[in-house]
Write a structure and sequence with these properties.
It is a single chain. The chain is α/β, with parallel strands linked by helices. It folds into two domains: 42 residues; 210 residues, Rossmann fold (3-Layer(aba) Sandwich). The protein is 44% helix and 16% strand. It is built from ten helices and seven strands. Strands 3-2-1-4-5-7-6 form a seven-stranded mixed beta sheet, sandwiched between helices. Helix 6 links the parallel strand 1 and strand 2. Helix 8 packs parallel to helix 9. The termini are far apart. The structure holds S-adenosylmethionine. S-adenosylmethionine binds next to helix 6 and strand 2.
């Protein structure tokens, strides 16, 4: 498979491999065409969803453009930062989804765990009222400065408060200060998701009627493709832990790399 091609969905990755194999083994043209059709129907759906969704704002587009041309490989080779990839941004479709959720819930305070270049934080900030805030945790000083410089290009950027350091420490501090959030978006170190979740619940950090959003809940297919599960074990364990909790209501939405939405049962079930 061409190493430049990458997709988060394993179906697409497997079809690309099948396409290469079919060529290599001179499989009849009619089969090769059908493989192409399958691939196209899958990729065209993503593209159609993006095209039929509202455009990202100028500020968010600017961050996406800057992120995609930033010299990530060079910086990681030099040792300035660990390996990072432009695909780490939440992107347009998931961004529109987040913005819709934030505006629907009339949220005022949002916690984002994992800032990267500020794409998600700015998208959320754009849906907040003038006195709304997004507190965003980021471990890497280089990334904190880069994101700040991008966020400052937008009038909504001032609603984003960057908290440096490991998210677990920042969250414990926020909990000690009695902070509560209407939406909490977890998008940092996947192995820490359970610890993040426990800090939130044990310290009542989720506002009444609040929602927790967990990004990468499908972790590139690993949690459900057990035979290919190399790095998705903790994600699967976390998803299962949540699904067994009788006090919570959850839905795993297959948008981008999977978004698990969690609410308290009492906030979802209607009265009789
Ligand atoms: C997937 S990116 C976040 C993308 C961002 N939420 C968006 O929507 O564009 C994950 C970020 O979390 C940061 N991160 C990873 N481990 C962390 C930790 N333990 N504490 C704080 N930030 C962390 C990484 O440096 C990276 O910038």
């Amino acid at each position: 498979m061409n190493s430049e091609k990458y997709h988060m969905d394993p179906t697409v990755r497997n079809l690309w491999q099948l396409e290469d194999l079919a060529k290599e083994h001179a499989v009849p043209e009619v089969v090769q065409k059908q493989i192409k059709r399958c691939l196209h129907s899958f990729l065209a759906r993503d593209e159609y969803c993006e095209n039929m969704s509202s455009p990202a704002s100028q500020g968010v587009r600017y961050i996406m453009e800057q992120t995609s041309c930033h010299p990530w490989s060079k910086l990681s080779k030099e040792g300035t930062i660990p390996f990072m990839h432009p695909m780490m941004v939440s992107g347009k479709l998931e961004g529109n989804f987040l913005k819709t959720l934030v505006s629907m819930s009339n949220s005022k305070k949002v916690l984002e765990v994992g800032l990267f270049t500020g794409c998600g934080a700015l998208t959320i900030a754009e849906a907040l009222p003038v006195d709304g805030t997004v507190v965003s945790c980021e471990i890497l000083p280089y990334i904190q400065d880069l994101a700040r410089s991008y966020l400052d290009q937008s009038p909504h950027g001032k609603k984003v408060i960057i908290r440096g350091g490991p998210a677990l420490e920042t969250m414990r501090k926020l909990a000690r200060d009695g902070e509560q959030f209407d939406i909490i978006f977890l998008d940092a170190n996947k192995d820490d998701y359970l610890s993040y979740f426990k800090i939130i619940m044990d310290n009542n950090m989720l506002s009444p009627r609040g929602t927790i959003l967990i990004d990468n809940a499908l972790f590139q297919g690993s949690p459900y493709l057990r035979d290919e599960m190399k790095f998705g074990q903790t994600t699967h364990e976390f998803n299962e832990f949540i699904s067994k909790n009788q006090d919570l209501y959850q839905v795993l939405v297959p948008i981008r790399d999977g978004l698990l939405m969690i609410r308290r049962n009492e906030d979802v079930e209607g009265a009789i």
